[in-house]
Structures are given as C-alpha cells and as structure tokens.
Amino acid sequence: MASFIVNIEIMPHKELLDPQGKAVTSGLKNIGFTQINNVRVGKFITFEINASDKDEAYKSAEKACKELLANPIMESFHIVVIPA
Fold this sequence. Notes:
Strand order of the largest sheet: 2-1-3
Largest sheet: 3 strands, antiparallel
Order of helices and strands: EHEHE
Structural class: alpha+beta
Radius of gyration: 16 Å
C-alpha cells in the first residue's frame, strides 16, 4: 500500500447559473475591482488515501465524487492524485 494525496476541484457546470459567483462579482465591483467579471464559486477538497497504486487511488476518489462529494447534475469535478 502507498499513500496518495487527492485534490478535487468541484465547479458548477458552465451552463448553469452560479448565484454565489454573481454575488462575489457584484461585491468585488462594489469595492472597486471593476476589471473582474464572471466569477464562479466552487469547492476544493483534499484528502490522503492509501491505495495499491495511483490508478486505484484515482478510482476511489472518482467514486467518492460520484456518490457523495459532487452533484453530477449540477457540478463537474477534476481529480489530481499525487504521491504523499
């Protein structure tokens, strides 16, 4: 068994409205950051996992995303696995 670090970026699908992103965009403009547009707000999750290899670690992370961490109807995810 080896130890891996899993980093997962979860973002709303681009074709869906992002109310949090709109609120952040508006707030930034209100405090003078007028050059910033189209903010999208997502989640970043990181954890350590023990697996026999990088592929097994990726598959476990993917299953966790599909079953709990991300809502596939509204969100997409990107997984990066690196040795710990």
